[in-house]
Write a structure and sequence with these properties.
single chain, mainly alpha, rod-shaped
Length: 37
């Protein structure tokens, strides 16, 4: 039972990190585009 909880929490943390990266990447690349042009 504790393995399932640990694995589930790892997946939640990984999903949150990937989601935050997907949101942050376009903002970072847009900032780079504005500064270089």
């Amino acid at each position: 039972m504790s393995f399932n909880k640990t694995f589930g929490s790892m997946l939640i943390i990984a999903g949150t990190t990937i989601g935050a990266g997907m949101l942050a990447l376009p903002l970072a690349s847009a900032g780079l585009g504005f500064t270089t042009s």
